[in-house]
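Chapter review. Work through the record for Ligase-associated DNA damage response exonuclease before attempting the end-of-chapter questions.
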Amino acid sequence: MRPDDMLHPRPAGLYCPAGDFHIDPVRPVARALITHGHADHARSGHGAVLATRQTLDIMAIRYGQDFAGQTQVAEGPLRIGDAEVAFHPAGHVLGSAQIAIRTGGRRFTVSGDYCRRANPACAPFEPVPCDVFVTEATFALPVFHHPEPEGQIARLLASVQAFPERAHLVGAYALGKAQRLIALLRAAGWEAPIYIHGALERLCAYHIEQGVDLGPLRPATDDGMTKADFAGQIVIAPPSAFAATWAQRFPDPVICFASGWMQVRARARQRGVELPLVISDHVDWPDLTRTIAELDPEQVWVTHGREEALIRHCTLEGRTARPLNLVGYEDEAE
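C-alpha cells for Ligase-associated DNA damage response exonuclease:
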C-alpha cells in the first residue's frame, strides 16, 4: 500500500482512512485530532476531538466548554481503528504537538506548526523518527534566518530606556506569542508590571496555572491610570488593537510587532511598525532543513506555506517531496 493511501488530503483536511480521522480539519468532522489551539488548526463543531490536555483547555477557553461533542486527552500511544497514534511536543505554543501515526507498516509524523528555538512558554520540540514527515513551510525560503529572540528583547528594552516618556505597544498574538514575549522579558530582567489587553487575560492566566512564570500583569485599561502613567511602560496587545481608539490612551506610543514576518521590511512599513521585533514561533529555513536532515525521512510532504523552495531543496538532497495543497491555514501564530 502506498503512503498516499494511508494519509491523504480531503476537502476537510488531512485524512487517515485506517483510523477514520482528520488532522486539524478546516470544517466539522466526526473525529478530529488537533495539533494545537490556534484558530487556523483548532476549530469547534467536531463530533469528537483528541488533543493534549492543554490544547483541549485552550479550545474550551476560546470556544466554550461545549466546543465538541466529545473530547479525549492524548496520553501515550493510542489505538484508533487500524492506526496507532501518539502526540509529541512541537515547541510552537503551550500544548502544541506533532502527531505520530503508525499504519500499514509506515510511520508518519504530522508536525503541525513547530519551532526548534527554546521557548519558556511551552515544551521543546521532540524529533520523532518517521518514514514520511509532514511539515509546514511558513518561512521556507533561504532568506529567512531568524535572530535569537534574546537579542530582539534587548532591542525593545534599549528603546524603552531611550524613550522613557513614551509607552511601548507591542503587537503579539493572544495565544503563544504574547506569553513567550512576557516570559522573555522576565528572563531579561524586566520586573515591572506588564500591561496587557483584555484579549490576553484568560490565556495568560491559564499559562500561569500551567507553571509559566509571567510575573506581575496589569490590565491596560486600568481606570486608575492616566495617560502619563503609561510613560516608560510596556503594553502587549493583539495587533488588531492598534487600529482602534484603544491605542490612543497611551502617550506617543512606540508601535512594535513581534513576528517572524518583521524580517520583511515592507511588512513592517505596511503595519506602521516603528520597532519590528523578529521573534517567531515557527522554524526558519536553517531549522527547517536541519530538521529534515536529522529525521532523514523517505518522503517529505509540505503543507501551508512556501512549498516550491523546500520541495526543490529536498529533491536536490535526493529526497522525495510533494505539496499537499491544504487550505484554510491563516498563520494566526505569527
